[in-house]
Amino acid sequence: MSFIDHLEALRWHIIRAAIAIVIFTLAAFLAKDFLFGTLILGPSRADFWTYRMFNAAGEWMGAAGLHMDKPTFDLQNRQMSGQLAMHISSSFVVGLVLGFPYLFWELWRFIKPGLYPHERANSRGAVFFVSVLFILGLLFGYYIAAPLSINFLASYQLDASIENQIDLQSYISTLTTMTLSCAFVFELPMIVFFLAKAGLVTPEIMRLYRKHAIVVILIVAAVITPPDVSAQIIVTIPILLLYELSIHIARIVRRKDVSRLNQELADNQGVA
C-alpha cells in the first residue's frame, strides 16, 4: 500500500470509531434522567453506594473516621444556556468513554497489519486488556476517588457562616477529572507492556527506580485526590499494585523476547 492508501485506510477506521461515539453520545443524551439523576448527580447524594459502604464499614470496624456524611452543598446554574450546554457536553464525554474500547480496537486494526508475526502473537488480547483496565479505572475513579474528593471539598469550610453553592460546571468538571484520571492511570501495565516490547523499559530499571516511582505515585495520588491523607492512601495502594504488576509484565516480555531470539539463533545455526 502507498502512503495515500494508508491514510485512506486510517480515515475509514477513524470514521467508524466516530460514528460509534456519536451513537453512544445520542443514547446518553436521550437518557437524560439516568445520565444526570443517577450517574452524574449520584455522588452528591447521601444514599450513594460509596457513602453507604464506608458508613457500614465504619460501624462494623468501630471506626468513626470512616463515616461519611452527605456532601453539604447546593448545585446551581448561573447561565441561561448552561444546563443545555452541560447536557450536550456531558453526553459527549459519556459517548467518548463508552466508545473508547471500540476506538482503540479500530486503531489496533490499523496498526496490526504492520506488525511482524511474532509481534502480533505477543500482542494478542491487547484490546481486551486495555478495555478491561480502562473500565476498572473508571469504576475506581467513579466509586472511590471522585466521591472522596467531592465529599471532602464540599465539607471543607472556612467558617460556618459560609455556604457552599457550587456551580454545576465545577461539580461535573471535578467528577469527570477524577474519573478519567483514574481510568488512564490504570492503563500503566499496558503502557509498560508496549514500552518493554520496544526495549525502552526493563524490569531491572523499574526495580532500580521503584523508590522514585513511589514518590511520583504519591504525587499523582495527591493531584487526583484532595489534601486528605486517607483518600490519598486509598488511591495510592492500587497504583502501587499496578506498578508491581507492570514489573512482572516487563519481566515476562523480556523472557519471551530472549526465548524467541535464542530460537531464531538456533534455527539459523541449524540451517548453516
TrEMBL record:
<keyword id="KW-0813">Transport</keyword>
<dbReference type="GO" id="GO:0043953">
    <property type="term" value="P:protein transport by the Tat complex"/>
</dbReference>
<comment type="similarity">
    <text>Belongs to the TatC family.</text>
</comment>
<comment type="function">
    <text>Part of the twin-arginine translocation (Tat) system that transports large folded proteins containing a characteristic twin-arginine motif in their signal peptide across membranes.</text>
</comment>
<keyword id="KW-1133">Transmembrane helix</keyword>
<dbReference type="GO" id="GO:0065002">
    <property type="term" value="P:intracellular protein transmembrane transport"/>
</dbReference>
<feature type="transmembrane region" description="Helical">
    <location>
        <begin position="84"/>
        <end position="105"/>
    </location>
</feature>
<dbReference type="GO" id="GO:0009977">
    <property type="term" value="F:proton motive force dependent protein transmembrane transporter activity"/>
</dbReference>
<comment type="subunit">
    <text>Forms a complex with TatA.</text>
</comment>
<dbReference type="Pfam" id="PF00902">
    <property type="entry name" value="TatC"/>
</dbReference>
<keyword id="KW-0472">Membrane</keyword>
<feature type="transmembrane region" description="Helical">
    <location>
        <begin position="12"/>
        <end position="31"/>
    </location>
</feature>
<keyword id="KW-0811">Translocation</keyword>
<feature type="transmembrane region" description="Helical">
    <location>
        <begin position="231"/>
        <end position="253"/>
    </location>
</feature>
<keyword id="KW-0812">Transmembrane</keyword>
<feature type="transmembrane region" description="Helical">
    <location>
        <begin position="126"/>
        <end position="150"/>
    </location>
</feature>
<dbReference type="GO" id="GO:0033281">
    <property type="term" value="C:TAT protein transport complex"/>
</dbReference>
<dbReference type="InterPro" id="IPR002033">
    <property type="entry name" value="TatC"/>
</dbReference>
<feature type="transmembrane region" description="Helical">
    <location>
        <begin position="208"/>
        <end position="225"/>
    </location>
</feature>
<feature type="transmembrane region" description="Helical">
    <location>
        <begin position="170"/>
        <end position="196"/>
    </location>
</feature>
<keyword id="KW-0653">Protein transport</keyword>
<keyword id="KW-1003">Cell membrane</keyword>
<protein>
    <recommendedName>
        <fullName>Sec-independent protein translocase protein TatC</fullName>
    </recommendedName>
</protein>
